[in-house]
Amino acid sequence: MESLQLKGVRACVFDAYGTLFDVNSAAARESDALGDTWQPLADLWRSKQLQYTWLRSLAGSHVDFWQVTGDALDFSMASLKLDDPALRRRLMDLYLHLSTYPEVSDTAARLKAGGMKLAVLSNGSPAMLAAAVQSAGIDTLMDAVISVEEVGIFKPHPSVYQLAVDRLRFKPKEICFVSSNGWDAFSAKAFGLRVVWCNRFAQVAERIPALPDGEIPDLASLPDILGA
Questions:
Q1: What mean pLDDT comes out for the span 185-203?
Q2: Is 15 part of the annotated catalytic residue set?
Q3: Is the pLDDT of residue 103 over 80?
Q4: Which end of the chain is more exposed for a tag (fewer CB within 10 A), N or C?
């Protein structure tokens, strides 16, 4: 993928969770309390969190991502027979301060210095996203932090991707969307954005419409790909 080049891109829009922020880091920080259970908890929590966004969107029963995240944690803790209200409170607080992946800050700074508009487009609620970008120290690099709460439905509904077009006032072909979630990357491409799939976990390609423009293992090569 070193030869990948996307011309004419004026804005780079990032998914948040799993792309910029390590969703495993909350449970990992409680590994002393959780022991060997921390990774199974992290995996189930994330899986159920995503399932609830899709189920609620299909059912027309939207709530914000903070409630979804709490509901998913409750399911996961009950499944693993963890009855510890104090631990639950700590885990939810840690979700507001997730670790970023190592290359995130440098990549965002390089893109910004190269004249690229930067934004986050996420399922996260406005309060969750504000806390996360500020905690990570990348809030000053972002031109917009966009939550699905503006349309009241979760990804991959097309109205979510339209938010980036409307807010940044660029054509879809002028926006590069970056996500580590394959279903998100493929769906953004089906909408019409340029897309780079940050396939951090070496997942196989999704069997849903559209193919991302390219695939990278992390964000470090993004400035070169976008000519920033």
A1: 97
A2: yes
A3: yes
A4: N
